[in-house]
Design a protein that fits this description.
The protein is of the alpha/beta class. It is built from 19 helices and 19 strands. Helix 8 crosses helix 18 and helix 15 packs parallel to helix 16. It is globular, with a radius of gyration of 23 Å.
């Protein structure tokens, strides 16, 4: 794979957003931000061989989120060891269970701390409590969104919900086990991800018709869900039935006043996709395919919803976005003649690694060197800073501010980037040696203590297990429904 030198650009209303042009055998980054993303997509063979040998020799499974460090993604993608799995947060724990069943010696989690907590909890619940799990840092690997759910405001909001019956708390999985435990103690709780939240909410209202659903902590996702539900109320009954067979216009209209969302929880990365960025996208990228994660602000969400309705976009999880792009490429390679797909990436820039891999595999499989895909990074002007050295011009990242780094400005998560190549090599080298004892601080930070006679870890795991049961049956589990009914009876 060849990486062509980028054009030099500066941020501004008259300059295109940075982008990466993907061809069957080449990458052409346009702009400093895109160059930062493309740098490590062709990993050093010696580094790949070193990591591959370590993982294979020590039988270390790796479960990783799409948003991890780009350099590490490139190396992992080239490894031959089969127990490497990169996905959104929904599938990470299930992949760890399959690796445990296949006999791995340990599991390395490349994500923020709530992800390693979830992996630990699910392994424990499936009979693999003895399998060690390691994070990539002895320090906390935080998440601004998860921390917003630990604020007093969230507890007060749930306290209000606890006085309304019947109620169900749908909590984004991007939260700590302690938060899940405290929430579940107040209001019956089930976790969700951006992949399954819509079906979770619709099924909950269908199963318990007079239910109140409380979603949190992500304010943008909550607002976007409310927007989606209100848009469903304008569809015909057959269209609604395709979304969920138990609903029609009357049921959707009836549930709207009983859907509530927390209004003070924000991810520092998705916050950057705001009004000014969307104004430029509407003006300069009207012909592009538009993608947006459910966590982005309303303006970006509305743009992608419009595109989705026109058959030119998708709103959903990281997996939904990847599948949409793969589908668009599959259609393009079936058409005769040269073409270029332009896709606006409305989520964290770490998605570029699996996108490049999927696109190039398709182009090569169909021998289509006349089809190319341009991935546009809609980076806010604030995420590019001018360097003091006039020969440098601009660099990714702002002069100061949380969420911005030279790894890719403000469309990348600084916490996720703690999961880097050096960290994984160091942890892997220690596993199976006397040095493994020094990795105690790398274990998942599962909350200790008890609530109402139950351990916080056990109580916090229950909403996750409810989600796993829902994923298998398509229904809220009986135990959760019974808990909701019991609280209503006591009121």
């Amino acid at each position: 794979m060849r990486v062509t030198q980028p054009a030099v650009e500066t941020p501004g209303s008259g300059v295109p957003f940075p982008s990466l042009l993907i061809r069957a055998d080449a990458l052409v980054p346009q702009g400093a931000f895109a160059e930062a993303q493309a740098t490590y997509l062709r990993p050093d063979p010696a580094t790949v061989a070193r990591l591959d040998a370590l993982l294979t020799e020590k039988r270390i499974g790796v479960v990783a989120h799409f948003y991890m460090d780009v350099e590490l993604q490139g190396v992992l993608a080239a490894c031959r060891w089969p127990h490497v799995f990169v996905s959104d947060s929904l599938a990470m724990a299930d992949a760890a269970v399959k690796m445990a069943e296949a006999g791995v010696r340990a599991v390395a989690v490349l994500g923020v701390d709530f992800m390693s907590e979830n992996v630990r909890a699910v392994l424990d619940a499936t009979g693999h409590a003895a399998l060690p799990v390691y994070r990539m840092s002895a320090r906390a690997i935080g998440c601004s969104l998860a921390e917003s759910a630990e604020a007093l405001a969230y507890g007060a909001w749930l306290g209000s919900a606890a006085r309304v019956h019947p109620s169900l708390h749908v909590i984004y999985i991007n939260t700590s086990l302690r938060t899940k435990a405290l929430s579940h103690r107040l209001v019956p709780t089930i976790t969700c991800t951006s992949s399954n939240v819509v079906q979770t909410v619709l099924q909950a209202f269908a199963q318990i018709p007079d239910l109140h659903v409380w979603y949190g902590p992500d304010t943008y996702m909550g607002q976007n869900l409310d927007t989606m539900l209100r848009s469903y109320a304008q569809l015909s009954d057959p269209e609604i039935a395709r979304l969920h067979p138990a609903h029609d216009r009357a049921s959707i209209a009836a549930l709207l006043p009983r859907f509530h969302w927390f209004q003070a929880g924000t991810c520092i990365v998705h916050h950057l996709f705001g009004a000014r960025v969307v104004e430029r996208l509407r003006r300069d990228y009207a012909d592009a395919l538009h993608t947006a994660h459910l966590e982005v602000p309303g303006e970006m969400f509305a743009l992608a919803v419009e595109a989705q309705r026109a058959g030119r976009g998708v709103v959903g999880s990281t997996s939904n976005i990847l599948s949409f792009i793969a589908g668009a490429v599959a259609s393009a390679v079936e058409r005769p003649g040269p073409s270029r797909l332009r896709v606006v990436l409305g989520t964290e820039a770490g998605m570029i690694t699996p996108i490049v891999r999927r696109v190039q595999e398709a182009l090569r499989a169909h021998h289509r060197r006349d089809v190319e895909v341009e991935i546009v990074f809609p980076v806010a002007a604030e995420s590019v800073a001018r360097a003091d050295d006039p020969t440098l011009g601009i660099v990714p990242g702002v002069a100061a501010g949380e969420g911005c780094s030279t790894a890719g400005g403000c469309a990348t998560c600084p916490y996720m980037k703690m999961n880097n190549l050096d960290a994984l090599l160091s942890v892997a080298a220690a596993i199976g040696t006397p040095a493994e004892a020094a990795l105690a601080d790398h274990r998942p930070r599962v909350a200790s203590g008890t609530l109402d006679g139950r351990s916080i870890a056990e109580l916090g795991s229950e909403p996750i297990l409810h989600m796993r049961a829902f994923a298998k049956s398509g229904r809220l589990p009986d135990a959760l429904v019974a808990q909701i009914a019991a609280l209503r009876a006591q009121a």
